[in-house]
Design a protein that fits this description.
Helix content: 25-40%
Largest sheet: 3 strands, mixed
Order of helices and strands: HEEHEEEHHH
Oligomer: single chain
Length: 144
Protein backbone atom coordinates (compact mmCIF):
# COMPACT_ATOMS: atom_id res chain seq x y z
CA UNK A 1 0.00 0.00 0.00
CA UNK A 2 1.30 3.44 -0.95
CA UNK A 3 1.92 6.14 1.65
CA UNK A 4 0.07 9.47 1.48
CA UNK A 5 2.91 11.44 -0.20
CA UNK A 6 3.18 8.78 -2.93
CA UNK A 7 -0.57 8.89 -3.51
CA UNK A 8 -0.48 12.71 -3.63
CA UNK A 9 2.40 12.59 -6.13
CA UNK A 10 0.48 10.16 -8.34
CA UNK A 11 -2.62 12.39 -8.29
CA UNK A 12 -0.57 15.52 -9.05
CA UNK A 13 1.16 13.70 -11.91
CA UNK A 14 -2.25 12.75 -13.39
CA UNK A 15 -3.57 16.30 -13.16
CA UNK A 16 -0.44 17.81 -14.67
CA UNK A 17 -0.54 15.31 -17.54
CA UNK A 18 -4.20 16.09 -18.16
CA UNK A 19 -3.65 19.86 -18.12
CA UNK A 20 -0.26 19.90 -19.92
CA UNK A 21 -0.15 16.80 -22.16
CA UNK A 22 2.95 17.92 -24.10
CA UNK A 23 5.15 18.36 -21.02
CA UNK A 24 7.15 15.68 -19.22
CA UNK A 25 7.03 16.17 -15.46
CA UNK A 26 9.09 14.42 -12.82
CA UNK A 27 6.91 14.16 -9.70
CA UNK A 28 8.58 12.57 -6.68
CA UNK A 29 7.41 12.14 -3.12
CA UNK A 30 9.49 12.16 0.02
CA UNK A 31 8.56 11.02 3.51
CA UNK A 32 10.83 12.06 6.38
CA UNK A 33 10.66 12.53 10.12
CA UNK A 34 8.62 15.64 10.79
CA UNK A 35 6.93 15.84 7.42
CA UNK A 36 6.61 14.96 3.78
CA UNK A 37 6.82 16.65 0.40
CA UNK A 38 6.33 16.34 -3.32
CA UNK A 39 8.90 17.75 -5.76
CA UNK A 40 7.86 18.62 -9.31
CA UNK A 41 10.54 19.20 -11.95
CA UNK A 42 10.23 19.90 -15.66
CA UNK A 43 11.99 21.52 -18.60
CA UNK A 44 10.48 24.52 -20.43
CA UNK A 45 6.72 23.86 -20.21
CA UNK A 46 4.17 26.06 -18.44
CA UNK A 47 4.76 28.94 -16.08
CA UNK A 48 5.56 27.90 -12.51
CA UNK A 49 2.41 29.70 -11.36
CA UNK A 50 0.29 27.36 -13.51
CA UNK A 51 1.93 24.28 -11.98
CA UNK A 52 1.44 25.67 -8.47
CA UNK A 53 -2.19 26.44 -9.29
CA UNK A 54 -2.68 22.81 -10.36
CA UNK A 55 -0.85 21.23 -7.42
CA UNK A 56 -1.54 23.56 -4.47
CA UNK A 57 -4.75 21.79 -3.45
CA UNK A 58 -2.54 18.87 -2.39
CA UNK A 59 -0.60 21.03 0.06
CA UNK A 60 -1.59 20.68 3.70
CA UNK A 61 -0.57 24.20 4.74
CA UNK A 62 2.44 26.51 4.80
CA UNK A 63 5.33 27.51 7.02
CA UNK A 64 4.85 30.85 8.80
CA UNK A 65 8.30 32.30 9.43
CA UNK A 66 6.88 35.06 11.66
CA UNK A 67 5.69 32.53 14.23
CA UNK A 68 8.22 29.82 13.28
CA UNK A 69 5.39 27.32 12.87
CA UNK A 70 3.54 25.30 10.26
CA UNK A 71 -0.04 26.44 9.70
CA UNK A 72 -2.56 24.02 8.23
CA UNK A 73 -5.13 25.17 5.67
CA UNK A 74 -8.76 24.52 6.46
CA UNK A 75 -10.12 22.04 3.94
CA UNK A 76 -13.08 19.73 3.74
CA UNK A 77 -11.92 17.75 0.69
CA UNK A 78 -10.55 14.23 0.96
CA UNK A 79 -7.46 14.74 -1.20
CA UNK A 80 -4.12 13.25 -0.14
CA UNK A 81 -2.02 16.14 1.17
CA UNK A 82 1.65 16.78 1.88
CA UNK A 83 3.30 19.49 3.95
CA UNK A 84 5.33 20.98 1.11
CA UNK A 85 5.26 21.05 -2.68
CA UNK A 86 8.40 22.20 -4.47
CA UNK A 87 8.37 23.21 -8.14
CA UNK A 88 11.51 23.48 -10.27
CA UNK A 89 11.37 24.63 -13.90
CA UNK A 90 14.52 24.38 -16.02
CA UNK A 91 15.34 25.95 -19.36
CA UNK A 92 16.49 23.80 -22.27
CA UNK A 93 19.40 24.97 -24.44
CA UNK A 94 16.98 25.18 -27.37
CA UNK A 95 14.62 27.50 -25.45
CA UNK A 96 17.59 29.62 -24.35
CA UNK A 97 18.75 29.92 -27.95
CA UNK A 98 15.30 31.02 -29.12
CA UNK A 99 15.03 33.58 -26.32
CA UNK A 100 18.50 34.97 -27.06
CA UNK A 101 17.58 35.29 -30.75
CA UNK A 102 14.29 37.00 -29.86
CA UNK A 103 16.07 39.52 -27.60
CA UNK A 104 18.74 40.20 -30.22
CA UNK A 105 16.10 40.81 -32.90
CA UNK A 106 13.82 42.95 -30.73
CA UNK A 107 16.45 45.06 -28.92
CA UNK A 108 19.39 44.90 -31.36
CA UNK A 109 21.78 43.81 -28.66
CA UNK A 110 24.23 40.93 -28.62
CA UNK A 111 23.87 39.14 -25.29
CA UNK A 112 27.44 37.86 -25.61
CA UNK A 113 28.60 41.43 -24.93
CA UNK A 114 28.02 41.76 -21.17
CA UNK A 115 28.87 45.46 -21.00
CA UNK A 116 26.43 46.44 -23.77
CA UNK A 117 23.74 44.16 -22.35
CA UNK A 118 24.16 45.64 -18.88
CA UNK A 119 24.08 49.15 -20.32
CA UNK A 120 20.82 48.39 -22.17
CA UNK A 121 18.95 46.37 -19.52
CA UNK A 122 20.74 47.16 -16.24
CA UNK A 123 21.06 43.40 -15.83
CA UNK A 124 23.54 40.69 -16.82
CA UNK A 125 22.76 38.63 -19.93
CA UNK A 126 21.68 35.50 -18.05
CA UNK A 127 19.28 37.54 -15.95
CA UNK A 128 17.76 39.07 -19.09
CA UNK A 129 17.27 35.60 -20.60
CA UNK A 130 15.81 34.12 -17.37
CA UNK A 131 13.48 37.10 -16.96
CA UNK A 132 12.09 36.51 -20.43
CA UNK A 133 11.90 32.74 -19.87
CA UNK A 134 9.85 33.28 -16.71
CA UNK A 135 7.30 35.26 -18.76
CA UNK A 136 6.78 32.49 -21.33
CA UNK A 137 4.34 29.61 -21.23
CA UNK A 138 6.06 26.95 -23.35
CA UNK A 139 3.60 24.15 -22.59
CA UNK A 140 2.17 24.15 -26.11
CA UNK A 141 5.46 24.79 -27.92
CA UNK A 142 6.15 21.38 -29.44
CA UNK A 143 9.06 22.90 -31.39
CA UNK A 144 11.29 22.90 -28.29
Amino acid sequence: MKNVPAIAAAEIRKELKRRFPNVNFSVKSKLYSGGDSVSISYIDGPLISSVIETSSKYELGHFNSSTDSYERHKSSDNLPKVMYIHVNRSMSPKAEGKIRAEIKKKYHVNLNNEAKTFEKFRAWPNMVVWSRFNELDLSKDTDL
